[in-house]
Design goal:
By secondary structure, the protein is α+β, with helices and mostly antiparallel strands. It is built from three helices and six strands.
Length: 195
């Protein structure tokens, strides 16, 4: 009998414990439910603030990159414009080079004559043409007989046996003058090299 009462009491206790547990669970759920919206709203607010901060940082980054790209574009186009102005006369100057060559040849031939007034008149016109072209940026490429041959600054037409051992691999004769416009060579000098 004792055992029966113990089991009965124990059964009543477990029923009571289950009811208490249920009540505690309900109270806990109510408390949690009432607290959850506040916590969730804070999390949402923080994530919205964080999202806005991230968006702002991304937009700042895009703005800085766009600004830097625009500055590079301005620098590049201004450099190209300056180069264009420097070489804008290139075609006209190239067309004038044969005339200048003809003047050089004419001066050599006229110098052989004894007519000084003719020589002086042609020399004056020649100097005027040279000064006009040089004012537009045209310069003679400085290549002389005896200089070492450099393919970056001269064009070798042919090779001949060197008249002396000193002229091996060097310029023996300049057939045609070379010209540059600014730093750019627009016509390479034509030279003969000693072998």
């Amino acid at each position: 009998m004792k055992f029966k009462n113990i089991f009965k009491n124990k059964g009543n206790m477990s029923t009571e414990n289950t009811e208490i547990d249920k009540e505690m669970d309900e109270v806990t759920m109510e408390n949690t439910a009432s607290q959850e919206p506040a916590v969730t709203e804070e999390l949402i607010e923080l994530s919205v603030e964080e999202q806005l901060a991230n968006d702002l940082a991304n937009e700042k980054d895009k703005h800085l990159r766009l600004f830097a790209e625009f500055e590079n574009y301005k620098r590049r186009t201004s450099k190209e414009r300056i180069e264009l102005f420097k070489t804008a006369n290139q075609e006209v100057l190239l067309a004038m080079l044969p005339v200048l060559d003809d003047f050089d040849r004419a001066i050599i031939e006229i110098a052989k004559s004894e007519d000084e007034t003719l020589t002086k008149g042609v020399e004056l016109i020649h100097e005027k043409l040279k000064s006009t072209l040089s004012s537009k940026g045209l310069e003679v490429v400085d290549v002389k007989i005896g200089d070492a041959f450099n393919a970056d600054f001269a064009e070798a037409i042919t090779q001949i046996p060197a008249p002396s051992p000193k002229l091996k691999g060097k310029i023996v004769d300049v057939l045609e003058k070379g010209y540059k416009l600014g730093e750019k060579i627009i016509r390479f000098p034509k030279v003969v090299i000693g072998q």
